[in-house]
Amino acid sequence: MDSLRIRAIASDISLNDVVLDLGCDHGYLSIYLKENNLCKEVYASDISPNALAFAQKNIQKSGQKIQTFLSDGFENIPVSFNTVVIAGMGTSNILSILEHEKCPNKLVLASNNDYYKLRSSLNKKGFKIVDEQAIYENKHYYIILLCIKGHQHLKKRELKFGISNNEDYYAYLMKHNLELIPKVPWLLKIKLKWDNVLLKGLIEKK
Description:
With 206 residues, this protein is of the alpha/beta class. The protein is 42% helix and 22% strand. The chain contains 8 helices and 7 strands. The protein starts with a helix and ends with a helix.
């Protein structure tokens, strides 16, 4: 499967990484990494037996050798890894998974909601966001974070809108806020207008 999002996630993976694709769904990312020799090794896991069966079928079709595990987060992973990819889950689920003692020092995360909470919680957990991508695909922006162990204190506007420096994404957020302003109570109107001031500042900073 050719996907901008998969390619963007894969761009955060290095040749020496041993990757756990946690919540692998259809297994497309694991297959892409293996087919293109983008990492040392990749393992695929999912909490859903049906999803994992689908991934196993796709892996078999691809001709690649990828070990798969039925697991709730890191619980039933019997192999060693130094990198985890978690994509397509909500922020609360991701943060709960990262509490586990097996959590590695390198994370590639693509949450589907609440990016402010994700960024701020990562900083509190001792992770540094070293790269962020805003990828537009299927009429939707996907935010992809590359994180490593380290100290970081992001500014409030960086916590809210990220460090992708993607002007198109910031403009998209501004437009969305403008569409909401006539429809919401006045206190929220003020908040959205202030958000747009911050977003304009990020665009002009570029």
